[in-house]
């Protein structure tokens, strides 16, 4: 059977290895596996959320309120925007997909950083859209602008990952606003804030305020997620915030019931426990220091991180080998070979997990 | 901002009204609302599933095993097909979307029944594909063939909804096989079996066996869901079964983690409790008799149903008015006005719910 051309060169996203796989392949007990590969919250989810969801597991047969009334009201209140400025996605990934399908096509491509979240490119290719990338790995807005100006007619969407996954760096809000001033009103700029909670906690200059952003730049949208700081990676809830007329168009692409009944409850309850998020952020950066110190001690190149992960770039050792050796011991890290880097990305885990991981990496440096 | 043309005339799916809305708008207590509008399982979910999911609510921070290893193994075993023949979707809706994006485009449209599941058309329009429909409301395969032969070059996907939502009728398996023999190997035929459990329970002639189907017709795929008979509407899990090379292409369009960690567990456990499904099916058709008897008594046109819902078509009364009157009393039914029918679709509920609904409809006939 012949399929649409776009599928020919489409390669799926390589997800972090699941605990179940390590159990199956290496016979390690699930409780002994340390998974620091997918930037999940090592503290789990707020106990209040766990309780609230536990109380409605007998409602799994019921579709969610597809208007997402309560969740949108809570987000609208949190960010000081209208409910109509918000679209809920199955993870913020899905809002990326909506943005691509709304603005990109065979004639209008996307522009991204050299190394950034892989789904921008995957969704673009699935839509038959061309992908422009900067030579620079991290976001170099000067280079973005250069490419944009030279190819304006062919670029429909610009993606800025702030902070940038899988590298960890983060643009200042001011830089982004200056950049936006030079972008045409008809080009959609997606500010992916999946890790914004971490970045703004570490450095206030990194904070993107959706309300101000969309008021000044109606061609920009902000993406947020419950997967990281809010500890709900497995529940797939994200959101996009943008000017109402823009979100109305993106919202047309949302299929009904795109999040589950339990996910909706979880997200609503998660917004009520900001203390849990604060604890997450505080411990994250405290523990990250262990990794920084370790890297400096062992002369490993580390990239500055405004997220809940850190990247170790190796010169003498082979990163894939290290990741593979640790995997056999039940430690799952993310090998960044697929991004063309001799590096591993490590989610900052629990203190006890971080100690084990660093000890095991040290073994591999000998 | 200018958006892709396909969005201009795109209208979202009108989901059944949620309980929360009736609570908000009419001040009725949630526990007093009878929702028979979305074909959810009135018996809820298997208690074993509720228990199993309840036990992992503390795992919401973890992404699911994106290979869906265990679920695919269980489905493969149930249907006697290979794991590679299966793609998991966020509801079978998402497999519809994959089928459209894989085969339809500006030059290749889709062909559906006159009145059928609305998402076929919505996904097609979002992809800029033309929609061919039969004049007949229910599936008339003669008319399908006529339209297909006259427009072969412009039709990439044929959707057969077996049984057909929102009407309830169901083609025989043999009719479908004969139809498939006349369809080109390059045209994808999607057999949407969301309500197959109900149909084959009522009449063995309706049963589509995915294994035999795809062995004989590699251009056909079968869709199933956990939303109806398995009582997991709110958890969004469906699947597509097809020839391996076809599913490999459709699978490329699946974003990672397209179902939640709790949904994955729920689906795996649901497959272990076929007794719950059997009870659902038995009580469904027993209760449906009440509706049939009522319709015959009051001279209401009823369509034969092989599903968990029944359609009442009115001649003298206004169906929308009846639906609206019942809504005010906390009874949510589906007005089919949007499909051009003076009819309401009623999910077969619990015995006590059905009695109340019929009594209220009777009030409106006076």
From TrEMBL, chains A, B:
The keyword Amino-acid biosynthesis applies. Residues 31-359 form the Aminotransferase class I/classII large domain. Its cofactor is pyridoxal 5'-phosphate. Pathway: Amino-acid biosynthesis; L-histidine biosynthesis; L-histidine from 5-phospho-alpha-D-ribose 1-diphosphate: step 7/9. One of its GO terms (molecular function) is histidinol-phosphate transaminase activity. Its EC number is 2.6.1.9. It catalyses: L-histidinol phosphate + 2-oxoglutarate = 3-(imidazol-4-yl)-2-oxopropyl phosphate + L-glutamate. The keyword Transcription regulation does not apply. One of its GO terms (biological process) is L-histidine biosynthetic process. It holds the Pfam family Aminotran_1_2. InterPro entries: Aminotrans_II_pyridoxalP_BS (IPR001917), Aminotransferase_I/II_large (IPR004839), HisP_aminotrans (IPR005861), HistidinolP_aminotransfase (IPR050106), PyrdxlP-dep_Trfase (IPR015424), PyrdxlP-dep_Trfase_major (IPR015421), PyrdxlP-dep_Trfase_small (IPR015422). Keywords: Amino-acid biosynthesis, Aminotransferase, Histidine biosynthesis, Pyridoxal phosphate, Transferase. The modification N6-(pyridoxal phosphate)lysine is found at residue 228. Homodimer. Belongs to the class-II pyridoxal-phosphate-dependent aminotransferase family. Histidinol-phosphate aminotransferase subfamily. NCBIfam families: hisC (TIGR01141). This is Histidinol-phosphate aminotransferase. It comes from Campylobacter rectus RM3267. The lineage of its organism: Bacteria, Pseudomonadati, Campylobacterota, Epsilonproteobacteria, Campylobacterales.
């Amino acid at each position: 059977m012949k399929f649409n051309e776009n599928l020919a060169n489409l390669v799926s996203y390589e997800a972090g290895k699941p605990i179940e796989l390590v159990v199956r392949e290496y016979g390690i007990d699930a409780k002994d596996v340390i998974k620091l590969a997918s930037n999940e919250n090592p503290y789990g989810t707020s106990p209040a959320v766990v309780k609230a969801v536990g109380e409605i597991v007998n409602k799994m047969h019921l579709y969610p309120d597809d208007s997402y009334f309560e969740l949108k009201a809570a987000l609208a209140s949190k960010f000081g925007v209208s409910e109509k400025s918000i679209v809920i996605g199955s993870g913020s990934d899905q809002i990326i997909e909506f943005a691509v399908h709304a603005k990109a096509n065979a004639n209008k491509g996307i522009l991204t950083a050299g190394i950034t979240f892989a789904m921008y490119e995957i969704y673009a290719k699935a839509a038959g859209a061309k992908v422009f990338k900067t030579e620079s790995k991290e976001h170099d807005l000067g280079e973005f602008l250069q490419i944009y100006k030279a190819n304006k007619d062919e670029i429909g969407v610009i993606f800025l990952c702030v902070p940038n996954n899988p590298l960890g760096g983060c643009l200042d809000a001011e830089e982004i606003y200056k950049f936006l001033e030079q972008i045409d009103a008809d080009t959609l700029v997606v500010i992916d804030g999946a890790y914004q909670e971490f970045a703004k906690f570490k450095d206030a200059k990194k904070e993107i305020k959706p309300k101000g952003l969309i008021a000044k730049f109606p061609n920009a949208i902000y993406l947020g997620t419950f997967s990281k700081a809010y500890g709900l990676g497995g529940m797939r809830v994200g959101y996009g915030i943008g000017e109402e007329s823009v979100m109305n168009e993106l919202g047309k692409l949302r299929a009904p019931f795109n999040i589950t009944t339990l996910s909706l409850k979880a997200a609503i309850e998660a917004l009520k426990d900001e203390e849990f998020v604060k604890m997450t952020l505080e411990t994250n950066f405290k523990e990250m220091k262990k990794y920084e110190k370790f890297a400096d001690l062992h002369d490993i190149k580390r990239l500055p991180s405004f997220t809940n992960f850190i990247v170790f770039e190796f010169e003498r050792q082979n990163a894939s080998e290290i990741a593979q050796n640790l995997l056999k011991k039940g430690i799952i890290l993310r090998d960044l070979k697929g991004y063309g880097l001799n590096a591993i990305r490590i989610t900052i885990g629990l203190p006890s997990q971080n100690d084990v991981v660093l000890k095991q990496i040290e073994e591999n440096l000998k």
